[in-house]
Amino acid sequence: MIIGVPQEIKNNENRVALTPAGVTEFVKQGHSVYVQQGAGASSGFTDQEYREAGATLLATIEEVYGIAEMIIKVKEPIASEYPLIKENQLLFTYFHFASSQPLTQAMIERKAVCLAYETVEKTDRSLPLLVPMSEVAGRMAVQEGAKYLEKPMGGRGILLGGVAGVKPANVLVLGGGIVGTQSAKMAAGLGANVTIVDISLPRLRYLEDIMPANVDTVMSNEYTIRQLVQQADLIIGGVLIPGAKAPSLITRDMLKLMRPGTVMVDVAIDQGGCFETSHATTHQDPIYVVDDIIHYCVANMPGAVPYTSTLALTNATLPYALQLAGQGWQKACSQNEELRKGLNIVHGKVVYRGVSDAFDLPFTEVSEVLGHVAHV
Questions:
Q1: Are residues 77 and 142 in the same domain?
Q2: Which residues are catalytic, by number?
Q3: How far, in Å, are 40, 43, 61, 358 from residue 23 at the CA level?
Q4: Is 265 annotated as a binding residue?
Q5: pTM score of the predicted model
Q6: Are residues 55 and 177 located together in one domain of the fold?
Q7: pLDDT along the chain (376 residues), means of 10
Q8: Contact assessment for residue 344 and residue 351, using Cβ atoms and an 8 Å cutoff
Q9: Would you say 300 is a known binding-site residue?
C-alpha cells in the first residue's frame, strides 16, 4: 500500500503521525511511504532520518495526498485540506466528528474512508489510541492550570502545593478516566488537595485504592459539583463519551459561584467541551475569561510537547496502521472488531452512532458498508 504522511497544519500542532522507526516497519513489509518534507522537524525527526528509514520525501502536502492510498495523520483535516482528500482514500487520524459539523459534512462529501483513532475500542471498552494522548493531556492540564493560577497570568495567585503554614490549592477533577486519573496524580504529587468526581462507583472505589491520601473521591451529580466549584482553585474537565459530544457539567450560572481568578482547563474540548462556556482555543492564544473565570481550552494540548506525544502516539497506532496497510481497510475492519469500531464515515455514509446522533444524520450499520464493499 502507498502510505502518505503530511505535515500537520493545524495551529501549533507540532506532532507527526509516523516516526522514522515506523517508516522502517512499513518498508520492511513491502509498503511505500511518502513523507512531506519537514513533517517531523517539530517533533525532533529530520528529513534525513526519514530517508534513511526508506521514505520518499515530497515537497508539498498536495503531492502527499495525491499519491497516497492511506493518509496517516495526527489531527483532523482542516478546511484547506478538504479538497485534497480523494474518494475511497483511507484517512487514519483523530477526527472528533461530533464536535464539528463542517468537518463531518466535508468528509461525507469527499466520500473518503474515515477511521478515527478516538473510537477504536477494545472488548473491555478501553480506547487504546486515545489513552496515550489522554495521559499526556491529563498531566499537562495540571501544568497549565498551575501556570494560569499565577497572578501575572490572571489567576488567583495560588501555588498548587502551598508551603508550610499555608494551605495548598483545591483542585477539582471532573471524570475518573485516563485524563482525570493522570490529572489527579499530578496535582496530588504537587501537594494540592484534590477531589475527583465520577458517576461510576466501581471506578471511584478503584481510584480510592490507588490514589494518595490527599485525593478524595466523590460521586458526581449537579448538586455536588455546584458545592465543590465554590472552593476550587483549579477545575479540570476530563469527561468522555466515546465518539459523542461531551456533556456540559459546568453551566454558565455556576461561574458566578466561583472565586475570581479560578482556572478551568477543558480537556474534553476536542469533543465539544464539558463546560457550557467552553470554545476551542490554540497554543498561540490559549485562554479567555468569562465572568472573571479563566478558561483554558486548547484542542490539541499534546501538540505542545511533540517529542513525547509523537512517540507515545505512534507506539499505539503503528500496529493498527500496519494491519490496515497489510490487509486493506475492508478486510482489516472485518477481522478486527477494534478497528471496525474506529470507522466513522465510509463512502459518504455515517457508520458511527455518536456522529449521526450529534447532527441528526442518517445512520448506516458498519456491517452493511463492509458487506457492500466486499461484493464490489
A1: no
A2: 96, 270
A3: 12, 15, 18, 36
A4: no
A5: 0.85
A6: no
A7: 96 92 97 98 97 98 98 96 97 93 97 96 92 95 98 97 97 96 98 97 97 97 97 95 81 97 95 93 96 96 93 96 97 96 97 94 93 50
A8: yes
A9: yes
